[in-house]
Amino acid sequence: xRVSEPLLSSSPLLPVVEVPPADAVRRLPRWLKxxxxxxxxxxxxxxxxxxxxxxxxxxxxxxxxxxxxxxxxTATFMILGNVCTRPCGFCAVHRxxxxxxxxxxxxxxxxxxxxxxxxxxxxxxxxxxxxxxGGAEHYYRCIVxxxxxxxxxxxxxxxxxxxxxxxxxxxxxxxxxxFNHNTETVPRLYRPxxxxxxxxxxxxxxxxxVKEVNPQIKTKSGLMLGLGETQAEVLDVLADLRDHxxxxxxxxxxxxxxxxxxxxxxxxxxxxxxxxxxxxxxxxFKQVASGPFVRSSYHAREMVQ
Length: 305
Prior knowledge:
This protein is α/β, with parallel strands linked by helices. The protein has two domains: 1-33 and 221-305, no CATH class; 35-176, no CATH class. Helix content is 35%, strand content 16%. It is built from eleven helices and twelve strands. The chain has helices at 41-51, 57-60, 66-71, 105-116, 136-150, 165-173, 190-194, 200-213, 231-243, 270-283, 300-304; strands spanning 16-18, 55-56, 76-79, 83-84, 94-95, 120-125, 153-157, 178-180, 218-225, 248-253, 266-268, 287-290. The relative contact order is 0.14.
């Protein structure tokens, strides 16, 4: 079994549970088992999304928090279709050749946000390398439509726009209250996890550029843990994010969405998540969510407040 080094020199060795071999029975540790929320509210949320023909990352990425969020009449909307142009090794969203953006999607998104009574709306998307601006103009239209219909605060979680600052600037121009772009993992694992087009340096520059253009926007990033990173590598990434003025941070456990995706190397103990959270707070992050079930937009409104 893999043994990891202490998080800090003064900290005791914190436990890490390694996933059994592929031919063994995979058993989740106790802290990754939870009850399914009961009630009909989640059916209401799912029905509304189906009625308005909207996609969510909750469904497409097989998020473990889907039922909890739907039962609270919230979801993370996924615009620009449900087919991604990037072959990321961790994501369950389908890959292939996407359809053109739907012109009425911003209005349908705004209607769903209004009918759900959302005060904070989170918008993400597939990566659209097939579009000249990566979908930035569509993001702009969605932000404007939701804000006009609901008055809600808006958080976007965008792809990297392949280092196109003009596309990034178009989304910034819509002034979302929170601009999220995930780091996902440590630099050593960037290519196998995020694919050949990814660039750790651009990820950091991306977040800094948002702040330089509009200092009022809160920047946010997140990592999946359990892909084989070391504790020292995680701490280095947290320091890099703060050096690039990132405000909000999420840390969660990577879970393999199915066969053919990157395997889980280890299950991170909740105590280690808590220690990472304390360290991130000490570095100066304004809000930190760190735990096995934390995802990029999990309890997003509470983080902003």
